[in-house]
Q: What sequence folds into this?
């Protein structure tokens, strides 16, 4: 019996010692857990750095103060981790994010702040609910030095950037906050960026230093140097972009100081030898842009720009929306106001362009057609069912070489041209100081437009069925309150338009369906449903 007891007691000791060793080993494993680096460690090397840990985990909370890129690359490579949470506090981020199939987001309602950049090379990546705040950074040099020049650079497929905040950022060099595609200083390399979503982000107080020759952009898709179809099918939706750069770069142009740019090549202006060929099919929708220089600069084909609100584009002859180069683009249901030193819409080059259901108000020019001797102007342009109100000039043609480079086959149908104070200013004219030519050499048809408060149809041609009511006639419900619904019954715009053209919009600015019969003139259909 004693012998048996000794054997049991001895077995207990053995089990206890084994348990202690096991726990110690586990604790030791935690203490010696592999540390993240800027490069992913392949699965083939897993045993060298500690093993896969029995299958790994699908989520991980990254400790405050860590290099986010390094952690994501490491744990995705080792354990297949796909969901990474960040807590309230400051994080760094640098190096290429090579992991695929990952989401990087906040933990609960925490407020993680990033001092660094994401250079995304992986596919199926989501970055959400993070904050970049320039007032929180320890120094700009580590964040803004080449070759990065972007806070978020996207070079993968199926990437979503959403619900992030980027604010209080003053650049020390030409810079972009969110960019998709190749980099012009990286050997002109192109990347296959597709199915991209940039949505519900807030960008505020983004500047270049006063007196700087550099430029800053909020969102940039595409490539400066080569004509390639990057960012095909991208969605740029419901972002709020405020307080952008309000001065031109010294010795430069404002073409880079733009809230949203979609481009596929150089130069910034059309030339006789360069017209973009890439079919981007980009959708830019529901964004709100307030302050700064250019709001939208479109340099691709088959883009849709709709339901955006642009206010207070105030400096440097800057347009709210411009089609710089590109064809088959549709601008629908946008409101632009306060382009006090520029144009609500600027049209450079491109064929088969449609501008419909837009409200352009309180700007220097409603539409500015611009062309240079270096390249072609636009052709086949339909301007229909828009409301122009309170602009100093409604339609202006600027051609540096006169009629030789004028736009061609421009059609105006169902538009309201209204001055909110009685004026005898012409609605259509040549740009002061530019070569003068007959604007009817550009206009192929004008009909069913309403000219009010002293505005009148351009002379030298025929405006078919264009009412010109007396200044006492009320056009809108309440223009003082910026209500541009047309007055019921008494407005001469009611049922005075046409719906004969294939390009006429079936819905109006307020997304109401227009009736089968004659349309109302302007962006808003009174009897829509």
A:
């Amino acid at each position: 019996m004693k012998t048996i007891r000794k054997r049991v007691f001895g077995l207990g000791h053995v089990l206890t010692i084994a348990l202690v060793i096991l726990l110690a080993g586990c604790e030791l494993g935690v203490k010696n857990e592999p540390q993240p680096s800027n490069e992913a460690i392949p699965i083939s090397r897993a045993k060298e750095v500690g093993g896969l840990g029995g299958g790994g985990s699908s989520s991980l909370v990254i400790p405050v103060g860590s290099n986010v890129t390094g952690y994501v690359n490491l744990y995705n490579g080792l354990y297949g981790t796909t969901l990474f949470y960040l807590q309230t506090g400051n994080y760094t981020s640098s190096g290429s994010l090579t992991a695929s199939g990952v989401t990087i987001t906040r933990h609960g309602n925490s407020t993680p702040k990033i001092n660094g950049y994401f250079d995304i090379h992986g596919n199926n990546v989501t970055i959400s609910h993070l904050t970049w705040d320039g007032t929180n950074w320890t120094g700009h040099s580590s964040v803004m030095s080449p070759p990065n020049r972007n806070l978020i650079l996207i070079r993968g497929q199926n990437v979503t950037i959403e619900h992030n905040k980027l604010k209080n950022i003053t650049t020390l060099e030409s810079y972009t906050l969110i960019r998709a595609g190749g980099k012009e200083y990286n050997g002109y390399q192109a990347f296959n960026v597709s199915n991209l979503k940039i949505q519900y982000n807030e960008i505020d107080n983004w500047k270049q230093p006063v007196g700087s020759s550099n430029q800053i952009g909020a969102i940039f898709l595409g490539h400066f140097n080569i004509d390639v179809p990057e960012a095909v099918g991208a969605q740029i939706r419901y972002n709020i972009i405020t307080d952008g750069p309000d001065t031109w770069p010294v010795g430069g142009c404002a073409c880079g100081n733009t809230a949203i740019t979609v481009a596929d090549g150089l130069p910034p202006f059309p030339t006789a030898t360069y017209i973009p060929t890439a079919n981007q099919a980009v959708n830019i929708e529901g964004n709100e842009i307030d302050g700064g220089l250019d709001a939208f600069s479109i340099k691709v084909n088959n883009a849709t720009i709709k339901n955006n609100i642009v206010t207070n584009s105030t400096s440097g002859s800057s347009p709210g929306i411009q089609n710089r180069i590109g064809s088959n683009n549709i601008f629908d249901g946008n409101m632009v106001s306060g382009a006090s030193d520029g144009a609500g819409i600027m049209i450079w080059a491109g064929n088969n362009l449609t501008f419909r259901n837009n409200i352009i108000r309180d700007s220097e020019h409603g539409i500015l057609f611009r062309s240079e001797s270096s390249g072609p102007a636009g052709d086949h342009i339909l301007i229909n069912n828009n409301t122009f109100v309170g602009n100093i000039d409604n339609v202006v043609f600027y051609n540096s070489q006169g009629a030789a480079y004028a736009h061609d086959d421009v059609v105006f149908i169902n538009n309201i041209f209204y001055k909110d104070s009685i004026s005898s200013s012409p609605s259509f004219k040549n740009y002061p100081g530019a070569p003068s030519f007959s604007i009817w050499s550009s206009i192929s048809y004008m009909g069913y437009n309403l000219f009010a408060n002293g505005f009148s149809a351009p002379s030298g041609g025929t405006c078919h069925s264009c009412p010109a009511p007396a200044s006492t006639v009320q056009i809108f419900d309440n223009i003082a309150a910026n209500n541009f619904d047309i007055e019921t019954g008494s407005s001469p715009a009611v049922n005075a338009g046409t719906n004969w053209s294939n390009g006429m919009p079936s819905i109006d600015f307020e997304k109401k369906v227009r009736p089968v019969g004659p349309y109302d003139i302007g962006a808003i259909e009174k009897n829509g449903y």
In short: The radius of gyration is 29 Å.
